[in-house]
Amino acid sequence: MSKITDMTKTHNWSGQKLVSTDHLLFEAPRTKHFMTGSEVLKEAVKRCTVDASVSYPITPQSEAAHLIGELWAEGYVGTYFRGENEFGVMSEVAGCSMAGARTITTTSGPGTLRAMENFAMWSGTRAPMQLCLMARGINSPLTIQPDNLEVQYLLETGMQIWYAENVQELFDMSIAAFTVAEKPDVHVPIVTVVDGFFVSHTREAVMLPEDDIALFPYDPYKAPLPPIDSEMPPGRFLRDPFVMKSNYISYATHASWQWEVRSAVERSRPYAEHYLKGLVHVTGTEDAEIAFIACGTAANQAKEAERELAKLGVKTKVIKLRTIRPFPEKELLAALEGVKHAFVPEFNVVGWLANEVRHTLYGKCDTNIVAGPKVAGGMSMPAEAIIQEVMEIVNPGKGA
Amino acid sequence: MANQGPAYYSPYPAATYEGIITPPEGKALLLEEVVDEEVAMREIAKQMLTQDNATIFPGPQVLYGWSEEATKKATLIKEMAEVLGAQMIPMYDYRPKYPKIDAEVEINPNHPNLTIWHNNIKAAIFIGVHCHYANVALKIIRSETDCWTVGMCSLSGHEDAMATIRDQHVEDVEKFIAIAKEVKKELGL
Lengths: 400, 189
Known about the structure:
The structure holds two protein chains of two kinds. Chain A is of the alpha/beta class. Chain A has two domains: 17-222, Rossmann fold (3-Layer(aba) Sandwich), CATH 3.40.50; 282-394, Rossmann fold, CATH 3.40.50. Chain A is 40% helix and 18% strand. In chain A, the strands form four sheets. Chain A has a seven-stranded mixed beta sheet with strand order 4-3-5-6-8-7-14, with helices on both faces. In chain A, helix 8 (167-181) links the parallel strand 7 and strand 8 (190-195). In chain A, helix 2 runs parallel beside helix 8 (167-181), helix 4 runs parallel beside helix 6 (116-124) and helix 13 packs across helix 16 (383-394). Chain A is globular. Chain B is of the alpha/beta class. Chain B has helices at 37-50, 60-63, 68-84, 112-119, 131-144, 170-186; strands spanning 27-30, 33-36, 55-58, 87-88, 123-127, 148-152, 163-165. A seven-stranded mixed beta sheet of chain B has the order 2-1-7-6-5-3-4, with helices on both faces. In chain B, strand 1 (27-30) and strand 2 (33-36) form a beta hairpin. Chain B is globular and about 45 Å long.
């Protein structure tokens, strides 16, 4: 079963009352539940009038794709099918989205890289699909834990990238993500990232609105481009690489096109600001000279370290980045005013977030950026590791 | 729009990279400033009335009668052209024109500069062009020409135009025509 009834002006095909994103996120009464990240994603999708979802449930995996399949069986998702592999899935997601369907899929780890070519193509077609990335690492040996290196590979694909810390943020972000991605002046794909296992598989308290309300459907007539065909860019350029490579006109179009895709991501800022209530969230002591810059569950661990350091008399604050693309440069600079040392705790060996921070802030602020502490392979990051890193700076040679 | 005029042979910089984005609802963008819609409309009218070879580029959304609004807008755009003394060169579709565009009678988002160069157009209004293609064209025009561009948009507007007004529906186009008539009178044209 895919649809229970016809769409009307007030209700969707599953009989849910259509409401604004503001109502769903900020006004509708909520009740407390105890759920995993995968279950929460199902609950978000249930309230988003989703037209299509495609999955390739590789093992090991989160349950998210399977649970969205249940939504199709229950009549909440328009269509649902399995691709041949991750590359196929992401291609099929592109097809659904370009055809005017509100579309979501979920993946993680090596599957992300197998489908990699598609993500830049998604952006180029200006299709507003959502990818929920339950990050878990890409290298051998495999891990289902959050070694979130795949995020680094997605940074320059032209997609929006938001990062949720916990199941509550995942729920709210997944709903806001459709809304922002579908704004006519944005209209590029969006990746909602959570740390796999720590969020996808772990049960937490979450506040949810009732499930008898849902977002208004996507209106493809407000898309910034009509459906493509093989003669119209990007279709023409996709099928006709020799023209693309040899013609000055194609150079100009390609250059402008790429700036336009990135401009679209920039235009998402005010919308993300509204629906996420800020591109960064700052907690801790406002005038602290030590800060943590983090996203995802690393921010959660940094908050624990902040509380423990306060007991030792060391004032710190946590600057949690909620969007990675667009990168919240202005907000980060404001939060770092007066900060002498900023630590970037991460769950990967590369330190991609520290690289992003250093690159963005170079020449713009005097804060010493410390790339660490870093753990990898899905190892947990105890607050003690963060505290030790801080105390090496605060109290050199003596530790915590 | 951040820097008026040629930006070498590259579309860089895009206005968003200088912090200029589409105007909020109810407002317009005039160069780098968010202004009241009427302020932008007056400046647009002035530019179109005073620059050489002012041209309206109607796109597929108003060239084809796919909705009642499209039909009404098309009629109004003809009136707008008469009031502004502007010519019209259509953007029928978005396919690159090979081997060569007839730049006298057509504009294309993939090489809009060719039409602007050929016709020596110094001011132009984009209307009824899908936002993405308008933006691709406007960036190229910014880098390759000195044309004063206007994005008259039914959705969110275009920051790479010199002026953009958003949410432009039938009544808004009527309002612009009325303002253009006033400005024309003020200029003694």
